[in-house]
Amino acid sequence: MDFLCEIVQALVALAAVVFVVLLVIAHLTAGMVDLTRHEKEKYFLTATGEKRLFPSLHDPHSRELSVVVPAYNEELRLPVMMDEAMEYLENRQKQNPSFTYEVIVVDDGSKDKTTEVALRYTTKYSADKVRVLTLVKNRGKGGAVRMGTLSSRGKVILMADADGATKFSDIEKVEAGLNDLNPKPENMAISCGSRAHLEKDSVAQRSLFRTFLMYGFHFLVWFFCVKGIKDTQCGFKLFTREAALKTFSSLHVERWAFDVELLYIAQCFKIPIAEVAVNWTEIEGSKLVPFWSWLQMGRDLVFIRLRYITGAWKLQSSHKTD
User: Fold this and answer.
1) Maximum CA pair distance of the chain?
2) Is 108 in a helix, a strand, or coil?
3) Is omega for the bond preceding 185 within 30 degrees of 0, making it cis?
4) Dihedrals φ, ψ of 191, to 5°?
5) 236 phi and psi, to 5 degrees?
6) How far apart are CA 124 and CA 151, in angstroms?
7) Nearest to 51 by CA among 43, 60, 59
8) What are the two backbone dihedrals, phi and then psi, of residue 224, each rounded to the nearest 5 degrees?
9) How far apart are CA 243 and CA 59, in angstroms?
10) Which residues contact residue 164 at a Cβ distance below 8 angstroms, ignoring those fewer than 6 apart?
């Protein structure tokens, strides 16, 4: 019995040491919020090739809807998504002429012709409806979404993946979820598209190892960061302008786990969040490498929580970008 007690004490001591070491590493390696822009990232091109300055999220809204599309090496998949989105948005505007919108495609330092492909839609629909923000270097999906959001004009802002995995017309579902939250008087609310209702089917199609990784990730999300949201990673989220400014101003993580920190920040600010089931289809060409991406996200989840615990990261006031 004494021997077992000694083993337990040794394990507890080891766990404490590991925890302290992780705290120190998390604190020392914590990057700060980076809202700076390269000079080239401050401008977009019109259909005639003129350079115009992007507006700021701090400005009053001048459109009903902004759609932010992060795109990295998406020259092949982007046209399918954009054709579907633009058809829907144009039809909606014809039915309701007071409805105004913009789509901002954020080229996240692509090595292919993503920018050229996106600019074809600027030429076709005008820069008033489609703008392209080309980042000088790759920031990661979270960084691309943030830079696009901070350049948007919409009263509400939709984040939508370039692969078109979610049916674009499902925006009506997340809009309904946002309206049900009744985001007044501060107009703070977020509506998240969710694939949680498809989980049983996805488990049946996945290998045992990938299923284990999925459930492990969900546990880490729940344990360290976000409570009450079953699917934090669906790339179809709708923000009120005020909620976007509040959350993206504090965002540190710029890669795959950025959704989790974003929702963690929202819950810290007590911003109401809806989760709404959407249609979703697996699209070939994902940039997510199953094992290493899940491992990276797991590490980021642990570090997100530890960095806020140690004070290395703090919730920011909504300050302007440079």
Assistant:
1) 82
2) coil
3) yes
4) -120, 120
5) -140, 85
6) 21
7) 43
8) -100, -30
9) 14
10) 77, 80, 81, 84, 85, 283
Q: What is the pLDDT of residues 279-305, one digit of tens each?
A: 877 766 566 555 666 677 778 888 888
CB hemisphere CA count around 206 (13 angstroms): 16
Number of H helices, E strands in the chain: 10, 9
In a domain, 314, yes or no: no
Which residue has 């409806």 as its token pair? 129
Q: Which residues of 293-304 are buried (b: 16+ CB within 10 A; e: fewer)?
A: bbeebbebbebb
**CATH number of the domain within which 134 lies:** 3.90.550.10
Please say whether the beta carbons of 108 and 72 come within 8 A.
yes
User: By C-alpha distance, which of 230, 122, 168 is closest to 158?
Assistant: 168
Does residue 53 form part of some domain?
A: yes
Listed in sequence order, the DSSP H helices in the chain are: 2-28, 78-95, 114-125, 141-149, 171-180, 199-205, 208-220, 241-248, 258-268, 290-310
Q: Does a structural domain hold residue 47?
A: yes
How many domains in the chain? Answer: 1
Of 197, 152, 143, the closest CA to residue 170 belongs to: 197
Q: How far, in Å, CA of 167 to CA of 221, rounded?
A: 26
Range of the structural domain that residue 267 is part of = 33-281+288-309
The predicted structure's pLDDT at residue 219: 79
pLDDT for 213: 65
Residue 322, helix vs strand vs coil? coil
Reported residue count of the chain is: 322
The pLDDT tens digits for 39-78 are: 999 999 999 999 999 999 999 999 999 999 999 999 999 9
Name residue, tokens 């009744």: 182
Q: Which of 242, 266, 249 has the alpha carbon at shortest distance from 60?
A: 242
pLDDT(211) > 80: no
